[in-house]
Amino acid sequence: MFPDIALNEFPAGWALGIFAEEFGDAAPLVRKIIKEKNPPLVRVQLTWSRNKHIYTEKHLAAARRSAAVYERIAIANPNVKIELSPFCEHDLSNPTPWLDTIARIAPHCEIVNCPWRGALSRRYKNEIHGTQIPPDRGNFNYSFDGTGCVDVNYPAFAKRYAKAETFFLWTYQFNGNRNDAQKDDHGLPLPYIEPTNREFWPTKKLMPAVRYLARKEKGEPELAATTTYKSLSDQITPIPGARDLLPVIITPVKALAINFVTTTGEIVATAPYYGPYRDGRNRYYAPQMGHRLAELARRKQGGNPLLTLNAGRIILGTVNPAHRQNEYRAKP
């Protein structure tokens, strides 16, 4: 199902980042996306180490095999830049021999160095993830990989990594996971789940909300510090239920409902009281997706996406319904 969603929901003209083999052979999907969506760039992570970012000759052998496949794709599609990274997040002190090897196998591709705590490259393009420090020289890619783009202050990350040649969006379901680090309902880590056994893949409900982050400005919302607005709540079931991924307001204020209100006082949505949150605050779920509420606000307010949250006479502040506000899971 996920390859179909990836193909149908992938935005035309955007760059694609993908693993070569970690979730099955990606080459057929890459060929389809190139044919139907015309991406300017495809970056392929050739291998992934499940052992604390330690890469061995076994990984290099796999990278060689996949590099040959994508060299053929690059030759067949000269208008698409194919970038190959032999390892996703390495701890190598000298990655150059690995990078040189892939460069020899795939001369029509650009080779990318993707470190974790390992060395940056001065010869090859680098790619950094999450909250890593931007390189002080040379072209680089940035990916949220490991840091869900829906759970941070997106504009702050876009500003910090504005010099990135390619800026990749990522959230937990892109790896088949339910949420950050696969935690249970009590916030405790779950055991490692093999990729073939993962169930929480992107859906038609999720993908437009992720794309929207990069398409429209957030504005300058101001929300009470004790209140958290999540533009996408947790996905509880593999096929999202009616409440999954809807915006949720978590606040000390208890009321029958919280309203989303325009600058003219019009109520455009009402989030009824749902129940207590695990920290003692109260939860309210909006009736429709956050990016749709943001677009509704823009239409009614001359492009202004911000809506006021009020619980009766108590005003909590303003939010852009498409963006998380407060209690960010990571800071750039």
Blueprint (SSEs and pairs):
Blueprint: H1 2-9, E1 16-19, H2 27-37, E2 41-45, H3 57-76, E3 81-85, H4 96-105, E4 110-113, E5 125-129, E6 140-143, H5 154-160, E7 166-168, H6 207-215, E8 228-230, E9 248-251, E10 257-261, E11 267-276, E12 282-285, H7 290-300, E13 307-311, E14 314-319
Parallel strand pairs: 1-2, 2-3, 3-4, 4-5, 5-6, 6-7
Antiparallel strand pairs: 8-9, 9-12, 10-11, 10-13, 11-12, 13-14
Helix pairs in contact: 3-4
What does this structure look like?
It is a single chain. With 332 residues, the protein is α/β, with parallel strands linked by helices. The protein folds into two domains: 2-171, Alpha-Beta Barrel (TIM Barrel), CATH 3.20.20; 228-319, no CATH class. The protein contains seven helices and 14 strands. It has helices spanning 2-9, 27-37, 57-76, 96-105, 154-160, 207-215, 290-300; strands at residues 16-19, 41-45, 81-85, 110-113, 125-129, 140-143, 166-168, 228-230, 248-251, 257-261, 267-276, 282-285, 307-311, 314-319. The longest helix is centred in the N-terminal third of the chain and has 20 residues, at 57-76.
